[in-house]
Amino acid sequence: MNENILIVISFLLIAGAFSTKLTVRYNVPALMILIGVGMFVGSDFLNLIYFDDMSLTRNIANFGLIFIIFESGFYTKKSALKQSFGPSMTLATLGIIITAFGLGYLIHLILGFDLLYSFMIGAIISSTDAAAVIMIIRQNPIKQSVSSILEVESAANDPMAILLTVLMIQLLTGGTGGGFLYISLQLLWQLLGGIMIGFFSSKIGRYLFDNLKSENKGHYYVLFIGMILFSYSLAGLLKTNGIIAIFFAGYWFGNYDFIFKMGISHFIDGLSSFFNMAIFLLLGLLAFPKSMIVFWKEGIIVASLLIFVVRPLTVFLCTYPFKLKLKEIAFISWGGIKGAVPIVLATYPATYGLDVNHKVFNIVFFAVLMSCLLQGTTINRLAKKLNLVISSQNKTPFYIQLFALDNTDLEMIEVHISDESQIIKKSIRELKFPDHTLITAIMRGKEIISPNGNTIINKNDVMFILTKKANTNDVNFLMANGYYPGDYCPVALKF
To answer: pTM for this one?
Structure first.
C-alpha cells in the first residue's frame, strides 16, 4: 500500500478516536463527526484521498457489520429483552415493515418514484442505529422501561431491514421467482434459520471456549473470531440470513457464562469500535457533497416524512397494545436515530445497477445526517423535559477480570455505591458478607484502594467483589441496604 495513503489513514483513525470526545460534550452522534472527517479529507475538500468504489465499500462494510451486529446481540441482556420483548421486537420486525412500506408509499406519492423503487428506499432507511442510540442513552441514563425498548429495538432491527432491502433489490432485478407464498416462506426461513444457527453456533462456541484451556489469552481471541465467522458463513451456506444468525449468536454468547467472557467482551468492544470508525470514515470518503446538494430537496422530504410522520405512526401502532404512556411513545418515536446500516444499505442498489447516478445513496445519506442532527443532538433534552432521566452510576477507568482455565462457581462483580446506599461511612468490618466473599479492590475516583477491615466506604465508590455466583444477588442487596437477613459469617473478608 502507498505510504502516503497509509499515513493519511492512520491520522484519520487517530483523529476519529479523539473526535468522539465531542459526542459526550455536545451530544453529537459519533457517526456525524467521523463522516465529517472523511468528507473533509475527501475529493470535494482537501482531496487527500479520492475514493468512489461503492462495491468495495459494500464488501468492507458487510464484513464490519458482522462484528458490529454481534456486539449488539452480545450486550442485549436477557432481562432487558424480557422486560421489553413485546414492544421492542414488534418494532424490530413489524415496525420495520410498516416503516419501509409506509415511507415508500409516501415517497411514491410525493416524489413520483416508481412504487417498488420507493419501497426499496423505505427499506434501506427503516432501521435505527444501535451505536448512536446506545451511546447517547448511556451518557444520560433513561428509565429502563423506556431505554430497554429503544436499545433492544435498535440492536435487533438491522436484520429485518437488510432482509427487506435485499428482497426489494431481488424483485427489482427479477432475481426472485415464485409468488407471494414463495417469498413469505423465504422470509420465514431467513428469520427462523438464522435464529437456529445463532443458537447452535453459540452452544458450540461456549463448549469450545470452556475446553480450550490455553494459558495464552490470545488463543481465545482467535477462537472468538473464528466462531463469529463460522456462524455467519454457515448461515450463508444454508441460504438463511447471516446477520440474524450473528445477532442471536451474540445474544446467547452474551447471556451465558463461559471461560474468559470478560476479556472477550472488551475485545468485541474494540473490534466493533474499530469497524464502526472505519465504516463511518469510509462512507465520509465516499460522499461527494457537491453531488449530494443536487438531491437536497429529496433528502429533506424523505427525512421529514420519516421523522415527523412515519416513525411516530409506526411507534404508536406497534406499542399501543402494550399500554405505554404517551410521553414514552413520544420519546421512543424521537429516539429512532438513523446511522451506519442505512448508509451501508444505500450502497447496495449501485452494485446491482439500480443507482447509476447515486440518487438513492445521496438521498439516504442526506436523510441520515438530518436524523443525527435533529434527533441525536436533542434526544437528551427531550428526555429531561419528559422526566425520563435517572441518576447515572459513577464510571471508573479501571476494571478487574477473573481468568480461569476451568469452569468455576466464583465471579468478579462490580458494585457502584449510589447516594442512597446504606453502607456509606461504614467500615468494611461492620458488614456481614456471605461465605467465600472477598472485596478485592475499591476504585475511588482515579485512585485504586487495597481495602482492609478499617476501610471506610464512600459514596460513588466502585467495588470489585469476588464471590460465588449464587451469592451475587445477596451481595448487591447488602451493598444497597447495609444488611441481609441471612446466616452470614461475622468476618467481612472471610474467604
So the answer is: 0.72
